[in-house]
Amino acid sequence: MRQTSGKLITRNYAQFRGVDFSNRKDEVNMSRSPDALNMWKNYKNENGKGIETRPDVELLAEYSNTIFGLFFYEDGVLIHSGDKIYDGMNNVLYDGVAWNPSHFFAFNNIIYFMDGYNYLQWSGGASFVPVEGFVPTTTISKQPSGGGTLYQDVNLLSPYRINSFCSDGVSNDYILDAKGLDNEQVRVWIINSEGQKEEVTSGFSTNYTDGIVTFTVPPSEPYTVGQDNVFIQYKKTVDGAAEKIKLCSLIEIFDNRVFVSGNPDYPHYVFYCERENPTYFSDTDYIEEGTQESAVKSLVAGNNALWVLKEPSNANTTVFYHNPAINDDGGKLYPSVHSSISTGCSFSGINFKDTICFYSDQGLEAITGDVTTEQALTHKSSLVDAKLLNDMINWRQEMDEYTGFVKLVEWEGYLLTCFKDKIYLADSRAYAQVNDHYEYEWFYFDLNGKIVTDIQVCNYPLGDYGDEQVGRGWLCIAAVEEDGDGWKYGMYAMWNNHKNTRELESYWTTFEDEFNYPQYQKITNKKGCVADIEGEDVEVYAKADNKTFDFIKRFKKIPKGYVVPRIKKKKWKTIQLKFRSTKPFSLYSSTLESYIGSYIKR
Fold it and tell me: 591: buried, middle or exposed (CB in 10 Å: 19+, 13-18, 0-12)?
């Protein structure tokens, strides 16, 4: 039998990949950490060699109330704080929005805002204004006695409709296509002899009950034979019509349309606007996704389809997708197709690097394979589920209507999962093989009590903002935190390569290493530990046999190079190293030598 006692083994911890919170102590990879905080792989720093402390979070501005929404545009930033919308720090653009998580989106150079109660728009003027719904012409080529051709659908966002008539020159009564009109003055336009549309304000009366406009003098026949020459606009309010759109909390732009859902009164409905017109939601343009027992949780555009992700359901109808189709009249339809996936969406979804991802009760899932024919669901968060899901459970018990959400955002090639004061980062460039499939590598940040209420990436170089230069690619975080006896509401920024100016704890722990000999005791070679580190102030710790970490040494003002901690531990089965600092530091590798001793004794 080969003698092992006295054998020297060298372990090299390098090529760090991410964390592994799975609690599989005997399976943790040497390049992963079972316990790490505020460390990540910065691919802009020497192409991702080593790991380093995450960027600091800098306060850009304080507001008097919770920030529910952020939106960056070419000339600035819009902020929904409390019941107001600000342009920048102090300029109020609207007063009277809801205390709800909100959405901004841009469409054809107009910025729209939805908060679950209001639907507003802004074209760069002095203030946001309520969206004035497009007025459809519902019937054309009408005779005064009625009839005609149905043209445009009723707009849920507008109580107004227009009918166009071809006058016969003798009729006084013009019958509209609806009865029971609102008691509001109708508007009338007539094509004059010069071919111009001219509004007339007198010479007619309205029977609102029967929907009839009566002219004192019959309008003349059209100067162009067969052309509509009389146009009548009336108002007919349908209770709850506009609220179908305004109460929605989920928004996605797809195929040049705005799709919305999340209305608590229509939990399984998806509504969509006319092409290129977010002010026009037809009363027939909606989709019922499965049964009403399960609500839509997320809308995601990707892979030439709109994905509708619903909460878990006993009917297993949880994931649908829609590809645009042309109907017989040349219009667009969005037929609903039930995917082969039955796992429900518990939180948000996102298109991450052309992969449709969402959170189920088991963690992060990804739709893979041929996404519109033979979908497969691949789990992507096994390495962090043990901690992530526990954090989510605790958070769900504490959450309120203002902070109770999971926000997904892509930043620096990572998918960030943000809730409460925690950020989990899934790496799109590194994959871990788990069982028979590949998952993301992960890192973990803690924002130290800053409860995230919104998080967005700034895509514009904004220049000065407060005392800071806000640049393209910054991660801007709206958060609330306790501050003495009260609360502080701020917009913060995190940007790559920014050096911390305040204390920020970060650390990296190696796995519980048995040095390939779990049945033997070991002893470290105190001269055989070398760490390739760069930083201002780094502490090194060691822990044997799952006891407590013992402080080894503090290294200050370390140039890019190496340090020698001189670790001396005897008669241990497993050993771990920990590198910690409250200042930024980078860890590139660490080597530890140990001698094999006698058998473990009980």
Answer: middle
CA distance 526 to 274: 72
**137-235 matches 8-54+505-599 in CATH topology:** no
Residue 146: name the closest of 169, 159, 165 by CA: 165
Q: How far apart are the first and last CA of the chain?
A: 23
Q: Dihedrals φ, ψ of 591, to 5°? A: -120, 135
Tokens of 93: 């653009």
Are 442 and 18 a contacting pair, CB within 8 Å?
yes
Question: In this predicted structure, what is the pLDDT of residue 441?
Answer: 96
Per DSSP, the three-state class of 373 is: coil
Which residues of 216-261 form beta strands (DSSP E)? 230-235, 250-254, 257-261
Centroid of chain to Cα 593:
46
What is the model's pLDDT at position 1?
42
CA 196/CA 186 separation, integer angstroms: 20
Distance from C-alpha of 519 to C-alpha of 361, rounded to nearest angstrom: 39
Backbone angles phi, psi at 48, to 5 degrees: 80, 20
C-alpha 53/C-alpha 126 separation (Å) is: 43
Nearest to 185 by CA among 201, 199, 172, 171: 201
Whole-number pLDDT of residue 58: 87
- Cα torsion through 426, 432, 433, 435, rounded to 10: -60
Residue pair 531/11 in contact by the 8 Å Cβ criterion: no
Q: How many residues does the chain have?
A: 602
- Cβ distance 29 to 17 under 8 Å? yes
Map 175-189 to HEC letters.
Answer: ECCCCCCCCCCCEEE
Hey, what are 225's tokens? Answer: 């034979």
Facing residues of 534 across strands? 586
Please give the structure tokens belonging to residue 443: 């890192």
- Beta carbons of 272 and 259 less than 8 angstroms apart: yes
Amino acid at 52: E
The domain locations on the chain are 8-54+505-599, 102-117+247-380, 137-235
Enter the tokens of residue 470: 């806000």
Q: What is the spatial distance between Cα 71 and Cα 86, in angstroms, rounded to a whole number?
A: 10
Smallest Cα–Cα separation from 260: which of 357, 131, 447, 169? 131
Q: Are 367 and 341 in contact (CB under 8 A)?
A: yes
Residue 455's beta-bridge partner residues? 477
- Given this model, what pLDDT does residue 559 score? 79
Q: What is the pLDDT of residue 132?
A: 96
| 14 contacts 31 by C-beta, under 8 angstroms | yes
Is residue 507 helix, strand or coil?
strand
Give the amino acid at 528.
G
Per DSSP, the three-state class of 70 is: strand
Closest CA to 211 of 156, 142, 153: 142
Rg of the chain (C-alpha set): 32
Fold of 137-235: Immunoglobulin-like (2.60.40)
Look up the CATH number of domain 8-54+505-599.
2.60.120
Amino acid at 353: K
Q: Where are the beta strands (DSSP E) in 3-90?
A: 8-14, 18-19, 32-33, 35-37, 39-40, 51-53, 58-63, 67-73, 76-81, 84-87
Task: Give bridge partners of residue 486 from the DSSP assignment.
Answer: 483
Segments in the chain below pLDDT 70: 1-4, 25-28, 46-48, 328, 330, 371-373, 397, 399-404, 462-470, 497-501, 602
What is d(CA 312, CA 318) in angstroms, rounded to the nearest whole number? 6
Q: Which residue, among 277, 320, 315, has the nearest Cα to 294 in the 3D structure?
A: 315
| Chain CA centroid to CA 206, Å | 50
